[in-house]
Amino acid sequence: MLGGIVDRFDTAVDARVQPLRGRPLVDAFAAVSSALGDRGLVWFLMAMARRRRAGARRARALRAVAFTGVVTPAVNRALKQAVSRARPPRPAEPPLPVRIPRTASFPSGHALAAWCAATLLAEDDVAAPLYYVMAAAVSYSRVHVRLHHASDVAAGSALGVGLGLVGRRLLPAGGAVMRRLEGAGMPRPHRGLTTS
Length: 196
Prior knowledge:
The chain has one domain (23-87, 104-181). It has eight helices and no strands. It has helices at 2-17, 24-37, 41-50, 56-83, 109-122, 128-144, 150-170, 176-181. α2 (24-37) packs across α6 and α5 (109-122) runs antiparallel to α6. The radius of gyration is 17 Å and the shape is globular. It starts with a helix and ends in a 15-residue tail after the last helix.
């Protein structure tokens, strides 16, 4: 029964997205958003922009990069192996220029990392809407470029928000770890921040 509901949801969302495919501006937007979500690139860049001055903003940026870079790949990998869902069929027309993952479809690692990082970065930040808009753009892109079913993206998004909230609880603003991070520099990019 649940499979039927999920399939109907995926089919309905895909039917809404289909008229947008093949439009050059929308395709370019989706390809760029998907590429920026690869390996957490956009979140690392946003955190780098926030880390210029020591203080709470830097600490939250470091928390977002470190927590998202360590936790989301582990959760993503475990769920992909457990569920092992096939990706949507690839279209006959030439695909958009995006990296084609070899992993299972569920959940969307791009959406998982995007919403986790956005949730962590957004805490007490006037730029919070920007982070959530970027997370939504990355999430939409994965359906548009046909690398995920809509339910993969919905699950990845929900898990990402949940993990981001867990990260806020484990490493609260004003806590001992965060106070130490307020004066720290940025870590080097983490190769483990994989998304698919």
